[in-house]
Each structure stands twice: as structure tokens, then as C-alpha cells.
Amino acid sequence: MTYQTLEHCVGNTPLVRLQRLGAHTGNTLLVKLEGNNPAGSVKDRPALNMILRAEQKGVIRPGDTLIEATSGNTGIALAMVAAMKGYRMILIMPDHMSQERKDAMIAYGATLIEVPHASGMEGARDLALRMQAEGQGIVLNQFGNPDNPLAHYESTGPEIWRDTHGSVTHFISSMGTTGTIMGVSRFLKEQNPDVRIVGLQPGDGAQIAGIRRWPEAYLPTIFERERVDLIMDIPQTAAEDTMRRLAREEGICAGVSSGGAVWAMLQLAEQVRDAVMVAIICDRGDRYLSTGLFSAK
């Protein structure tokens, strides 16, 4: 009998149709359940790919110390892969992220360093680079590492094309590092240039875990603006309300950025006909239970 290792369980996540939300539009509204990855998010894909490719290039080898700035999901995924492959993992994160995220990183054996909320992800990224310059470890740099979007070009995009039998018309994704949308856009546009790629960023004043409106100096270098046809701003309340509706009306318990992605898909579905839309459900909602978001009316 042949057994799989954990790395073979990353990807090939379910693509499911919404049954109630947006049903009146007559469009096919699909969500890709990335919470089904082993460490619970879409970030399992680039985390595994960045480490495997760095090994192949001779940049790292088991026993090395890896460093990464993260808002949560990438850190959890990297901690899982590091544990699986034999690396020490140091993760740097703003201190206001959910306790579940912090606990998950520590559970995988990672060392967690928190920076003040006011410093944000920019402060976390700066600290990671300083630590690397001081010889404390190697930064994988999800924000500038081409192996991040490559993971989605080689897996997420092909899975969507396969599972929609090439009928996908719209792809909708929240944007943080932008790796997901860059890789999927590249693949889908190669198959059909008419596929509409929609990227999501927080609206003014919104703070949605995992997605950002980056200052120009910190814009991920993997981001290529021409690969996104439309950028939409996601209001905080809309993302949170849709997150709760997903759980209560569809049985899909996901995080706030996923609620934002489905909200955007529902807005677009009102404007078109005969569309096959795919939105990324980045992670599972149990990562946010301590925030009280699901208890709100």
C-alpha cells in the first residue's frame, strides 16, 4: 500500500455552488473552500511551494531558521510546513490578530514575535528584514517571492478551470500579498482572455484580516496591476454581515475576507446574466471565534 505525506494533501480543494445567496440572479455562484487545506487556508499552497522551491535552489536546507512577517494564515501555513520539513520558524505578526491564529502558530512549534498594532504589517515586514540582515534567519518574503503566485498558477488556477469545465467567467479574490490573484489570473487569462479578474481591498476605515490597501512603498513586488480587471473596495460591515450569512444560510463558516469576496460576487451577479463566478473562501471561520464576530446580530 502507498501512503501520502502531508504535502500531498495541499490543494484540490472543493468548489461548491451557493444554494441560497444570489440564487435569484440565475448565475452560477461558486466558492472554493481553501479552509480544507491541512493548515486551514489558501496560504498552505504558497507556503509549501516557497519552501520546496527554496530547497531545490539550495537557498535553505533542513535545520535552517526561517523568518516571515504575517497577518496570520501564511504564518500558520509556514509553521506547518516548517514542522513537516524540519525548519525552525520565526513569525512576526501585529499584536491585534485573533488569539486562534497566534495559538495555531505556536502549536506547530513556531516562535511568535508580536509588533504593536500601530506598526501594522509594515512594521512586521521591516523587523523581519532587520533580523535577516543581522543573520538571525532567512526571510522567504511572501510579498516579493515569485514562488507565491507560482503556487496558484500551477494549482489553484488549473483546479478552477478543470472544475468549471472551462466555463468560468469571473474570478473574485481578496488581495493581501496578491499571490492568489496574480497566479490565478495568469493561468485563467492564458486559457480565456475574457475571464474577468476582480480584486478586493478594504474600504476606507475597514480593517479586514488578511487583506490590505498597501502604501506605495510596501506594495508587494509580485503585484502586476494589469492582471486585475476590476478592483473593488469592501466595506467592513458588508464583509462581516456576509460572513455571518454564509454560515447561517449556506453552512459555510469562513473568515471576514471570505465574506467580503462573496459580498463582491453578489454585487457583480446583479449586473450580469449567464455568468459562472468563482470566489475564494480563504480560510475557516473557527479562526475568528474569539473575536465575537459570529455572535453579532
From TrEMBL:
Pathway: Amino-acid biosynthesis; L-cysteine biosynthesis; L-cysteine from L-serine: step 2/2
SUPFAM superfamilies the UniProt entry points to: Tryptophan synthase beta subunit-like PLP-dependent enzymes
Amino-acid biosynthesis found in the keyword field: yes
GO term, biological process aspect, one: cysteine biosynthetic process from serine
Cofactor: pyridoxal 5'-phosphate
GO molecular function, one term: cysteine synthase activity
Keywords: Amino-acid biosynthesis, Cysteine biosynthesis, Pyridoxal phosphate, Transferase
Residues with PTM N6-(pyridoxal phosphate)lysine: K43
InterPro entries: Cys_synth, Cys_Synth/Cystath_Beta-Synth, CysM, P-phosphate_BS, TrpB-like_PALP, TrpB-like_PALP_sf
EC class (word): transferase
Record-listed pyridoxal 5'-phosphate binding positions: N73, G176, T177, T178, G179, T180, S257
Name of this protein: Cysteine synthase
Species this protein is from: Fluviicoccus keumensis
